[in-house]
Amino acid sequence: MxxxxxxxxxxxxxxxxxxxxxxxxxxxxxxSGDDQSEDLLHYSELNETRMNRLDKTIxxxxxxxxxxxxxxxxxxxxxxxxxxxxxxxxxxxxxNKMAQISDKIDLQIAFRDENPELMTLFLTNGGxxxxxxxxxxxxxxxxxxDWGPRPAEAVKLIVDYKAKFGIVxxxxxxxxxxxxxxxxxxxxxxxxxxxxxx
Length: 198
Prior knowledge:
Helix 2 runs antiparallel to helix 3. The model has no long low-confidence stretch (mean pLDDT 96). The longest helix has 20 residues. By secondary structure, this protein is of the alpha+beta class. The chain has one domain: 3-Layer(aba) Sandwich (Glutaredoxin), CATH 3.40.30.10. The chain has a 4-stranded mixed beta sheet, with helices on one face. It has 9 helices and 4 strands. The two termini are 22 Å apart.
């Protein structure tokens, strides 16, 4: 596993470089990832706007800030993502703001389709759900924990809808985006702090 982590880190991007790469792809009329379609391009464009907004508006709670400021161990937060992923667009700006608080956190983003071996190690119910945060000890490259693809309450929203209607459609995707809007990144911060506290 350490070799796969190491290879993926060599093939990963800082948050700024990830954003730059997505912008470059959009300028070419492309989304990230192996598949290209009008829908994925549309989602990528929406997510670009969403991330621009969240970069400006997301606030880290004083409790989270205090916890992150007191970290003793150095971590790499390696996140599997793609530009078309709505959850990633909501969550990466939060993770980036959290990482900026502490010099003990190095946030790196790896594209899912460019790192299939890593993705295979961190499937969710057998699927390639993203974003997936892999918390790695910087000194040993041991995986401390992993988290994702979304906060527990958002997972429940999707699971309940799918149980009721049998599909994940635009209606529930809109509900999910509204959930993120009202949550303001609090659940994500709290859940990641709990992981680091264990």
